[in-house]
Structures are given as structure tokens and as C-alpha cells.
Design goal:
By secondary structure, the protein is α/β, with parallel strands linked by helices. Helix content is 58%, strand content 9%. Among the domains are: 142 residues, no CATH class; 180 residues, 3-Layer(aba) Sandwich (Rossmann fold). It has 31 helices and seven strands. β1, α24 and β2 form a beta-alpha-beta unit. The radius of gyration is 29 Å and the shape is elongated. The model has no long low-confidence stretch (mean pLDDT 93). Bound molecules: S-adenosylmethionine.
Length: 598
Amino acid sequence: MEDKEILTIVNGLKNGNHKSISKSKISETNLLKIADKLKEDNFDISILINIILHNNINENCDWNIGSILQHFDYNEIIGALQNVSQNRRGYLYDSIGFCWALGECPYKNEQVIEFLYEVINNGRNSESWWRAAFALEKITGKNAINNLKRSLKNYGAISLEDSLEDLSDKKNVINVLLHANSNVIREVIYPRLKERFNSSNSEKELVNIIWLSGRLRLYDESMLSKSLEILETTSSYETKYYILQAMIDDPKTIYLKYFREFLDSDDKLIKKMAIAGLAELGAKVDVTELERLLQNEKSPNVISSLSKAIYMVKNNYFAEERNYIRKYMVNENGLIGDDSDKWYADASIYNLFSEAEDPENVCFNIIFNRLLSEKIRVMNPVDLATGTGRAAKFILNNISYDGTLYAVDYSKQMLEYFERTINRQKYYVKDIHLQHSKIEDFKIPNGEKSSFIISSFGFPSKISDKDRCRNELENVFDLLTDDGVFVTLGWDETFNDDLNNMWYKYIPDNIRAANFEEWRKMREASIESARNCMLTWYKKNIKVPLLYDTLEETINVMGHLFGRDAALEILKNKRTMWWMSLGITWDNKESLARILKK
Ligand SMILES: C[S@@+](CC[C@H](N)C(=O)[O-])C[C@H]1O[C@@H](n2cnc3c(N)ncnc32)[C@H](O)[C@@H]1O
């Protein structure tokens, strides 16, 4: 661009005239020149914001404004944003450029964060909605896709069928992810993505399909030739980015040839992504080629990609990371939040989770010691919702009892798993009986009673269902001897711990909250009394860890429960421990009678 042209644009902008920046997307270098010139003349950036607010601007203009803004002092941008009146603020939600520019803010600012959340929660334009989430991720580190999933869940779910009809819309793309569980991917999503990919002519839709396919690891060679054609013809930064990202996400040896060709590209983005692709291919890459390129490279951005790539190819640390990603980052959505108890389906994974909770049995020992001090003679102990037998095993190993230990659960998979443990560990030398039953229906044979009923993370089976809570408690009351006790172990219901933070971050639920503190308070308030059953707290605020033996086990289990993004974060931070804040309730027949008004 000639200096004269730049000057015309600058003078136009000073008068609020946006025609000159609406014709096309201006290159980064020229936008920087424009910004520098404006800054020299003490330009008031609220003029740019007013252009967005008052004029029905096109995509080019919006992009150019965003890219000019990024070069200004962010205090000025935030000041200008604050000056926008409340009733006009909503018009800014539609601006992709403005949302993008906020993501470049070099420091964490509450105003910026608040605005971006407003866009995610209220924005109608899917593209700015999407951009706001990625901007927020850049500033706060909070995962963009999870924020988008949460927003869709809270503010308007769409049917999977409807969203597969139009994948040019980013909200539909996220909705597909919300539905992306293994069977649905295979039966519905995969065939429909292929069909749309082959028939669609819309670049926007094709790119979204490529992005989705990359993320779900469905991108394959058959999509490659059409993608390469688009790559050659497109001028869109986003298109190039997502095509290469899909290839990087699931790197196949066949891409080696293309990544190597792209190394010669004049386009810095393509070159950088080709390097990232080679880095992901690891051992299959000739590292001397990368070293030679690094020697000759001058651009700092490319130098950083090349030096990183050399490490990723050469060093085993990164090979191991890649291996974990391939093996364990397979669940799009975590199974823990699902109301349908899906996360219990794989008992062996559940067992690893359960064993990792309070591995030193601090909570069980508290219970055990009180049983001893109150001299309670344990007869026919019952472990309600036994799962893979965590509490039952403690009883088997530590408590002498008369009669039979009943381990009750409604999941056959859990009981089958526990049965195998019993055989392996020879637990059958004590009297133990596994019973497939709902908590509310379980009866001890011959009308016998129990003096010790416990439930670890199992009572009530659905805390939000008042009727079920009542029926389950009634049954516990009936099962209990006159001198018996009913003990529950679980959250202390403050939800104020590391593990709940993970829940907040990675499990999109229906709680509308802007941050963890707000979320946990709302969760706390949704429970009226201990276990929502007016039970009696014995101890709260017991801090015990969820602690895994190895990183691999952590990624496997947590990836299964919290989804792939959680697993990725864990891998990057090498985290194997989360504090949990637990509580124990303790009731006898008398207190239960009071609760049930007997
Ligand atoms: C969070 S797990 C707890 C398992 C085990 N007590 C532990 O501490 O690891 C909850 C268990 O409750 C079982 N469950 C869910 N609803 C139930 C019901 N209505 N009756 C009996 N068991 C139920 C599930 O199958 C699962 O095994």
C-alpha cells in the first residue's frame, strides 16, 4: 500500500469514515502502519467503536477495525468500552473484530473478561460468540470449547439433527460436540459429516467440518484432496488455520510429504503450521532438515516454531506426551456429569477413581473409631451403592461383624467387577453377599436388620429428587436395628475444593455462573440440608486428596470422567492430585425417626 493510500484511510477514519477499510481485509503490515499514524495524531479510538456501533459494517471493515485496535493502548480501549451506554453495548456483541482484539489484551482485566462473558452468554452472532470464547481462553486460560458448550447448554440447546443440517453456523458445530459420544459419532455424526463435506460448496461450512473432523479424529485421507484445493485458493486466515490444524490434530505419515512442501511457503502461517505438523509426526521426521532451516531462519515467530519442533522430534519427553494424547484423549465429553449414570458403565475405570479417593482411608478411619468408641456391635453391615466395593472392602479388612455383609448396587457392571475382586482377594472367607437392588428396595432376607448401614458417595442416589430421597431414607430406617447407625460419606456440600473446580471447568451443566465461586455457592444453595435428607453432620471440611499412582492412570481416568480437554490440561501440568472437601453424616434410629416424623 502506498503511503498516500494509508494517509487517505487515516484521514477518513479520523472523520468516522469507514468506506476505505470496507473494501477488503488489509494486510497486517499496513494495518500496523495505519495504527501508528493514527496514534501519532492522538486519535480517539472511540471513533472506531462508534463505527461498529452505528454503521452496518461488513466483515472486512469489522476485521480491519479489530486489527487496528490491537495496536492501541488497552487502557484506552477499555475506557472507550466503559463509555458505551448499556443499551448500546449489545451491538458490540456482533463484532468479531472487537472480540478478537480484546483477546490480545496483554493483561487480565475484569472489564474485558466481563464483556467477553456477556458475548458468550448473549451474543446472537455465532462467529463473534466463538471468537469471544477464544479471546477469553487467551486471557484467562479457561477452555474456550467448554465455555461454548456450557453457554449452549444454558442458553438454548438445539437438536443434533438440526445442527447437522447447517454446519456453517458455529453454534451448530459446538452442539455437535455436545452430542459427541462414541456411538453417536459412529452412527450419526461421522456419516453426516462425510456427506456434507462431499456435497457442500460453502467454504465456511467446509472449514467447520474440517475443524470438527480434526477434533473428533475423523479427518482422513479422503478429505485431504478437497482440503488442499481450498488451501490453494483461499485467502482466509481462519480457513488455512483450521485445515492445517485438522492435519496436525491427527497426524498421519501420509501428511509428511505435504508438511514438507509447505515449509517453502511464503505464507508465515502455513510455514509455521507445517513445522508444527512435522513436530507432531515426531520420529518420522528428518531432524537435520529442521536444524538446517533453523540455521537460515530470520523470523522470530518461525524460529520459535522450529526450535520447539526439533525438541519434539528428538526428545522422548514429547514422544511420551504424543503417545498419551493418542491413547487417552479420546472422549470429547466427560461422562461424570451425565444424569444417566453413564460414568459407571466402565467399572474398571470407576474403580481406579474410587481407589484414588482418600487413599489413606482417613474418612473410613474416623467412622471406624467412632464405631469402636460407641461400642457398636456390628451385625449384618450394609454398604448401600457399593460400586466396586470401596466401603465394603474397608469393612472386610477392618471390622469384625456378625451375620452377613450386604453390598448393594443397582449397576450389574459394578457388582460383576466387585465379584471378581472378591474372588481374587479371597474376601469370600468372610460372609459377604452382593445384591443387585435399588437402595429403596433392598431388604435383608428373613426380615433381619442391620446395626451399621453405610453409603460412600452413594446416598441419596439422586440428591435433587425429593421423593426418591424420602423413599430411600424410609428404607434405611426400616433396615436399621433399634441401636443401629446410618453413616454417609461424601462431599461436605460446600463444593469448595480442587475437584469441584475441575467439575466447574470441564463439565457443562445448567448452573448459570460467571466464575467458580458463584458456581459453587449456587450448587451449595441447591442443597437444603445434609444430603438433602436432613441428616446429621458428624464432620465437615475433611480434606483428603484424590491421588493417583501415575500420570498415565490420571490421564486415563480423568480423561474418561472429565473429557479430553481436562486430560490435556492434566498432561501439560503433570498433575496427579486434587484436594477434596468431604463430610460424614451420622444418624441413629431416633434421629431418623425425627427426620421422617415417625
Ligand atoms: C459414586 S458411586 C459410589 C460407589 C462406592 N460406594 C464408592 O465409594 O466408590 C455411586 C454408585 O451408586 C450406584 N447407584 C446409583 N443409583 C442407585 C440406586 N438407585 N440404587 C443403588 N445403587 C445406585 C451406582 O451404580 C454407583 O455404583
